[in-house]
């Protein structure tokens, strides 16, 4: 990865074993503890309670949304709330129908099967999953070539919980077999303050409200980033033998180049390049990436989504274009100020 520390801090994708272990310790264990996502929480609660009342396995559930918003956490809660065993797998681990058959045939009644990144599962496995989801049954091929026969196998009733950051990539027949799809949204600042307050308590870190609010404003609406920034603030307070107050947040996050609205060094460099070297654009992705010395892939998947979301950058057929909002934020004036911006 060519990205520096600043970029990793604000990249919503989980980084390595250490972070995964750290996150594990901070995961809410019940729906009640799960902050925000009011709507989804209510929907899940209803679905789980009804299933318990009817003594059946809950419908299959699809959790869709960007990285770091709580999909894995919710999958674990779904199992926990119903007091059901949980089996975890992921799309990339299921590269053949046989991989899936092995998992499905070993499920116990009522088990929750979590398939993370379900859009990356092999096609052949996907087809096996249709039947499994619908009828709790699969057909296993025995033998090879002309003598091959398919043997039906009954499965224990289970609940599939699929997670995807790219629900658009799911084939319709698969999407249609989920009884419920939860769309996770980015979190509001007051919700992130709650996420942070809870995490600080679990970490035994005394921190004041102003400090929490400041971190909440810089974490791009994403609990994973919030927890990560909190960890850097905790380090800073520890090393400098001081309280985790507003000043410590400023100092720690300045050190890591995360600015007041959550932009990091690379985000700012990309914006400055569009604004000053290309007069606000349009500029093509590849040209832009070369200008900031990054892979186009990094610019497109790591940098751009947030800049687009906060309305600093728009994608047009002719290339990336900075918005008036961006010109203002960077304290620059548009070279054609006074002329209409509509021509962009
Ligand atoms: N609603 C929430 N309340 C409190 N903490 C949360 C919430 N949602 C997420 N978190 C925290 O954020 C971290 C990341 O969440 P999680 O791993 O569930 O994200 P994800 O959606 O599965 O991400 P990915 O797409 O990368 O798999 C977890 O450590 C969890 O503690
Ligand atoms: Mg996850």
Summarize the structure.
Mg(2+) binds at residue 72. This protein has helices spanning 5-10, 16-26, 38-53, 71-81, 97-105, 123-135, 172-176, 189-202, 209-218, 223-239, 246-255, 265-277, 285-291, 296-309, 324-329, and strands at residues 61-64, 86-90, 112-116, 137-142, 149-154, 159-164, 180-183, 313-316, 319-322.
The percent range for strand residues is 5-15%
Instruction: Please trace the helix and strand order, writing H or E for each element.
Output: HHHEHEHEHEEEHEHHHHHHHEEH
The level 1 CATH classification of the largest domain is: Alpha Beta
Secondary-structure-based class equals alpha/beta
Specify Rg, calculated over alpha carbons.
Answer: 23 Å
Tell me what the CATH architecture of the largest domain is: 3-Layer(aba) Sandwich
Number of domains as seen in the coordinates: 3
Quantity of strands, as a count: 9
The average pLDDT is 91
In DSSP terms (H or I, runs of 4 or more residues), the helix count works out at 15
Rounded to the nearest angstrom, the distance between the terminal CA atoms is: 34 Å
Largest sheet: 5 strands, parallel
**Spans where pLDDT lies below 50 across 5 or more residues:** 1-6
CATH topology of the largest domain: Rossmann fold
Q: What is the overall silhouette?
A: globular
CATH superfamily of the largest domain: P-loop containing nucleotide triphosphate hydrolases
């Amino acid at each position: 990865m060519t990205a520096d520390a600043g970029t990793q801090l604000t990249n919503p994708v989980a980084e390595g074993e250490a972070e995964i272990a750290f996150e594990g310790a901070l995961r809410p264990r019940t729906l009640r503890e799960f902050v925000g996502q009011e709507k989804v929480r209510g929907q899940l609660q209803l679905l789980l309670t009804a299933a318990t009342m009817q003594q059946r396995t809950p419908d299959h559930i699809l959790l869709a949304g960007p990285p770091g918003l709580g999909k894995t956490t919710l999958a674990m809660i779904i199992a926990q709330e119903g007091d059901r065993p949980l089996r975890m797998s992921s799309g990339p681990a299921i590269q053949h129908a046989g991989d899936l058959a092995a998992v499905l045939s070993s499920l116990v009644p009522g088990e929750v099967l979590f398939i993370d990144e379900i859009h990356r599962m092999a096609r052949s496995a996907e087809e096996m999953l249709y039947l499994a989801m619908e009828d709790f049954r699969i057909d296993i091929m025995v033998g090879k070539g002309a003598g091959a026969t398919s043997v039906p196998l009954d499965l224990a009733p289970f609940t599939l919980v699929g997670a995807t950051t790219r629900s658009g990539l799911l084939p319709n027949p698969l999407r249609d077999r989920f009884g419920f799809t939860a769309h996770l949204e980015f979190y509001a600042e007051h919700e992130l303050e709650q996420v942070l307050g809870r995490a600080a308590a679990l970490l035994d870190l005394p921190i004041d409200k102003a400090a929490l609010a400041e971190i909440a404003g810089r974490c791009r609406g994403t609990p994973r980033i919030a927890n990560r920034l909190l960890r850097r603030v905790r380090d800073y307070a520890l090393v400098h033998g001081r309280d985790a107050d507003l000043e410590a947040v400023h100092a720690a996050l300045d050190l890591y180049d995360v600015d007041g609205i959550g932009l990091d060094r690379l985000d700012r460099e990309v914006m400055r390049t569009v604004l000053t070297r290309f007069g606000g654009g349009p500029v093509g992705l590849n040209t832009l990436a070369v200008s900031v010395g990054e892979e186009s892939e990094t610019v497109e998947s790591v940098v751009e989504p947030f800049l687009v979301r906060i309305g600093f950058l728009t994608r047009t057929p002719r290339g990336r274009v900075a918005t008036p909002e961006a010109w203002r934020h960077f304290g620059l004036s548009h070279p054609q100020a006074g002329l209409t911006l509509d021509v962009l």
